[in-house]
C-alpha cells in the first residue's frame, strides 16, 4: 500500500509560525510574534522564584523575632518564675523554723530558718534581674522583697535573737513568757508573714500572666507567618499553574504531538501524521524536520516491511529446525524423538497431520509408530488392537520405503474414512530406509517442504541412534543364551520390589534354582546340549507363572524367580511345579537326568535384598544336601 505524503500545509493552512498569523492551539488567541524557547522557559520559573524569595524573607523575619525577642523574654520570665517560687519555699522554711524554735526552744529548729535566709538572699537579685524588662513585675517583686524583709527584721530576727524568753515578747517585764504573751508574739509574726504572702502570690500571678501573654505572642507570630507563607504559596502555585498552562499550550502539547508522530514513524506507521501548531520557533523547525523525515521513510516503508515479514518467517522456521536438531541429537528416547519429529514436520510443512512409519521384521513391513494427531496411534482399518501396518512395497508408503524416494499419497484412505492428499518421504541413513514420513496436507493449501530435507536426514540418524540405544540397553539387561533377564536386571528389580514391599507391607517371595549335576550333563552330553538344556529350562520356568512374576539367570546354572504379592507357600507350590516339569521334560537324559533343586524365602520385616538372597541360597543348599530334585523353604 502506497503511503500518503505527510505535508504540513494541509487544509488547516500553513502551520509555520509567522508574526501576526500564528494561533494558540488551545486558547485560540493569535500571539503577536514568535517566541524563543529559552525565554519562555525562563519566564515560566519567575513566579516561583519571586514567591520563594519572599517566603525566605518572611521565614527569616519570623525566626529573628522569635529567636531575638520572644524566646529570650520567655526564658527570663520562666527564670523569674522559678526565682519567685524558690523565694517562697525559703520563706516558708524560715517561718516554720522560727515558730518551732519559739515553741520548743530547741536550736535544731533554726536550721531551716538559716537555710531559708541564705536562699532568699541568693534568689532576690536573680528575681529582680530576670524581670528587669518588665517594670510592673519589678515593682511587684520589690514589694514582695520589702514585706519579706519587714517580716525578718520586725519579727524573725528579734525572735531568734532573744529566744523564747526574749524582752520583745515579755510585755509585763517579769522575765518569762506566759501563754498570752506567746500567743500575741506569734500573732504578730503571722500578720507580718501574711502580708508577705499576699505580695508574693500577686507577684507570681503577674509573672504567670506575662508568660501566657508571651506564649500567646509566639503563637500569633507563627500563625501570622504561616498565613503569609500560605498566601505566598498560593500565589506561587497560581503563577506556576499559569506558567505551566502556557508551557503546555506552546511547548508540551506540540512536543507530545511530535513525539507521538516520531513513535508512529518508528513503528512504521506513516499514515496518520499530525501537524503540531506552536508559536515556538524551535518547535516549528523540529516539526519541519520530522515532516521531511517522514516523507523520506514513507518511500521505503512498504518494501522494508515486506522483506522483514519474509525474513522473520524464514528465520522462525530455521530456528525451529535448529532447536529440533539439538533436541534430536541430545535424546536417545525413541518415543520422544519420533513425537518431536512428527509435530515439527507438521508445523514446518503447514500440514494437517504427519505420520511416522517404522520398519520392523527385518524390513518386510512398516508399522505406524507415531502421529501428530491428538488421538495418538491410529488403529488398523478393521478396528483391531494392534497399530496399523503396511507391507514393504505396498501403497505409497510401502513404495516410498522400497524405492527410497518421495511419492505422492494421492487419495490416501485413513482409518476413519478421511481422504487427504499429501506426500510420503523416506528417511534414509546411508543406503538404508529406517522410516517413512507421511505428510497429509490441508484442503487447498500447498505443502512447504523447503526445510524438511535436512530435518528428515537428522531425524533418520536420531531414530537409528535411539533404536540402537534401545537394543543395546535391552541386551545389557538380558542373558544372551536363555533370553531371561540377567543378574544386573535382577539386582535392580529386587531392590525396587523390596522397597515397595516394605513401604506398603506387601508379601514378596524369592525362589533360587540350581540345576543338579549340571557339570555331569556337560561332560556326558557335551556343552552344546548343556546350553540347550539351559534354554529349555528357562522356557519351562516361565510357563505357568503370573504376569507379575519375573525369571532371571542368576549365574552359570543358577536361576531365580522374583514373585511380588506372593506368600511363601504359594511360591513353594510354583517352584515345585517348575521342578516337576523339568524332571519330566528330558526323557533322553538317561545317563544324567535333568533335575533341579530350589530354595524358597519370603521377605521378613527389616530384611534387605542381600539378606533375602542369602536366605533363599541357604534353603537351596539345604535342598541339595537333602538329596536334590526337591524344594526347601527357609525357616522363619
Automatic annotation (TrEMBL):
Keywords noted in UniProt: Membrane, Transmembrane, Transmembrane helix
Superkingdom field: Bacteria
One annotated Gene Ontology cellular component of this protein: plasma membrane
GO-annotated molecular function: diguanylate cyclase activity
CDD domains for this protein: GGDEF
A Pfam family annotated for this UniProt entry: CHASE3
Annotated stretches, region: Disordered: 1-37
SMART domains found in the cross-reference section: GGDEF, HAMP
Keyword Translocase recorded: no
All residue ranges annotated as the HAMP domain in the record: 249-302
Swiss-Prot/TrEMBL GO biological process terms: cell adhesion involved in single-species biofilm formation; negative regulation of bacterial-type flagellum-dependent cell motility; signal transduction
Keyword Transmembrane attached: yes
InterPro entries in UniProt: CHASE3, Diguanylate_Cyclase, GAF-like_dom_sf, GGDEF_dom, HAMP_dom, Nucleotide_cyclase, Rev_trsase/Diguanyl_cyclase
Domain named GGDEF: residues: 506-636
PANTHER family: DIGUANYLATE CYCLASE DGCM-RELATED, REGULATORY COMPONENTS OF SENSORY TRANSDUCTION SYSTEM
Name this protein carries in UniProt: Diguanylate cyclase
Organism: Nocardioides caeni
Classification lineage: Bacteria, Bacillati, Actinomycetota, Actinomycetes, Propionibacteriales
Amino acid at each position: 500500500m502506497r503511503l500518503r505524503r505527510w505535508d504540513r500545509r494541509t487544509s488547516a493552512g500553513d502551520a509555520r509560525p509567522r508574526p501576526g498569523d500564528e494561533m494558540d492551539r488551545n486558547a485560540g488567541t493569535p500571539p503577536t510574534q514568535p517566541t524563543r524557547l529559552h525565554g519562555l522557559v525562563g519566564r515560566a520559573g519567575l513566579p516561583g522564584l519571586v514567591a520563594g524569595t519572599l517566603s525566605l524573607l518572611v521565614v527569616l523575619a519570623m525566626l529573628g523575632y522569635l529567636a531575638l525577642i520572644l524566646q529570650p523574654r520567655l526564658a527570663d520570665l520562666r527564670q523569674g518564675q522559678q526565682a519567685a517560687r524558690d523565694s517562697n519555699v525559703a520563706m516558708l522554711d524560715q517561718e516554720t523554723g522560727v515558730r518551732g524554735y519559739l515553741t520548743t526552744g530547741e536550736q535544731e529548729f533554726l536550721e531551716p530558718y538559716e537555710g531559708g535566709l541564705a536562699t532568699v538572699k541568693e534568689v532576690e537579685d536573680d528575681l529582680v534581674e530576670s524581670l528587669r524588662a518588665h517594670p510592673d513585675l519589678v515593682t511587684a517583686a520589690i514589694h514582695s522583697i520589702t514585706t519579706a524583709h519587714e517580716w525578718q527584721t520586725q519579727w524573725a530576727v528579734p525572735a531568734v535573737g532573744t529566744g523564747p524568753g526574749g524582752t520583745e515578747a515579755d510585755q509585763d517585764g517579769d522575765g518569762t513568757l506566759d501563754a498570752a504573751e506567746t500567743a500575741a508574739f506569734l500573732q504578730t509574726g503571722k500578720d507580718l508573714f501574711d502580708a508577705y504572702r499576699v505580695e508574693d502570690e500577686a507577684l507570681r500571678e503577674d509573672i504567670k500572666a506575662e508568660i501566657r501573654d508571651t506564649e500567646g505572642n509566639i503563637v500569633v507570630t507563627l500563625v501570622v507567618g504561616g498565613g503569609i507563607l500560605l498566601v505566598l504559596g498560593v500565589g506561587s502555585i497560581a503563577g506556576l499553574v499559569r506558567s505551566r498552562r502556557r508551557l503546555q499550550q506552546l511547548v508540551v502539547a506540540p512536543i507530545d504531538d511530535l513525539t507521538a508522530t516520531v513513535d508512529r514513524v518508528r513503528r512504521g506507521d506513516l499514515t496518520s501524521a499530525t501537524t503540531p501548531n506552536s508559536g515556538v520557533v524551535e518547535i516549528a523547525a523540529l516539526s519541519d524536520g520530522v515532516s521531511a523525515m517522514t516523507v523520506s521513510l514513507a518511500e521505503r516503508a512498504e518494501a522494508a516491511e515486506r522483506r522483514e515479514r519474509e525474513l522473520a518467517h524464514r528465520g522462525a522456521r530455521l530456528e525451529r529446525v535448529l532447536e529440533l536438531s539439538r533436541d534430536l541429537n541430545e535424546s536417545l528416547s525413541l518415543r520422544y524423538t519420533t513425537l518431536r519429529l512428527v509435530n515439527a514436520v507438521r508445523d514446518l510443512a503447514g500440514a494437517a497431520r504427519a505420520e511416522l512409519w517404522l520398519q520392523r521384521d527385518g524390513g518386510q513391513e512398516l508399522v505406524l509408530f507415531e502421529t501428530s494427531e491428538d488421538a495418538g496411534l491410529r488403529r488398523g482399518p478393521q478396528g483391531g488392537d494392534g497399530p496399523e501396518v503396511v507391507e514393504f512395497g505396498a501403497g505409497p508408503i510401502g513404495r516410498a520405503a522400497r524405492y527410497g524416494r518421495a511419492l505422492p499419497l494421492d487419495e490416501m484412505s485413513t482409518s476413519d474414512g478421511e481422504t487427504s492428499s499429501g506426500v510420503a518421504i523416506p528417511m534414509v541413513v546411508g543406503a538404508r530406509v529406517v522410516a517413512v514420513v507421511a505428510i497429509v496436507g490441508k484442503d487447498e493449501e500447498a505443502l512447504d517442504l523447503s526445510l524438511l530435507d535436512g530435518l528428515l536426514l537428522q531425524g533418520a540418524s536420531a531414530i537409528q541412534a535411539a533404536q540402537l540405544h534401545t537394543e543395546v540397553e535391552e541386551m545389557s539387561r538380558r542373558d544372551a543364551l536363555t533370553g531371561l533377564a540377567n543378574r544386573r536386571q535382577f539386582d535392580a528389580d529386587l531392590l525396587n520390589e523390596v522397597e515397595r514391599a516394605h513401604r506398603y507391607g506387601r508379601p514378596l517371595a524369592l525362589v533360587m534354582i540350581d540345576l543338579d549335576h549340571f557339570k555331569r550333563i556337560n561332560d556326558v552330553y557335551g556343552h552344546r546340549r548343556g546350553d540347550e538344556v539351559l534354554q529349555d529350562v528357562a522356557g519351562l520356568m516361565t510357563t505357568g507363572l503370573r504376569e507379575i512374576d519375573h525369571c532371571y539367570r542368576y549365574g552359570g546354572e543358577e536361576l531365580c524367580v522374583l514373585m511380588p504379592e506372593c506368600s511363601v507357600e504359594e511360591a513353594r507350590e510354583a517352584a515345585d511345579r517348575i521342578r516337576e516339569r523339568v524332571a519330566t521334560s528330558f526323557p533322553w537324559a538317561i545317563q544324567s537326568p535333568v533335575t533341579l533343586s530350589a530354595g524358597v524365602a519370603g521377605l521378613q520385616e527389616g530384611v534387605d535384598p542381600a539378606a533375602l538372597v542369602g536366605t533363599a541360597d541357604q534353603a537351596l543348599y539345604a535342598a541339595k544336601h537333602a538329596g536334590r530334585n526337591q524344594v526347601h523353604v527357609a525357616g522363619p
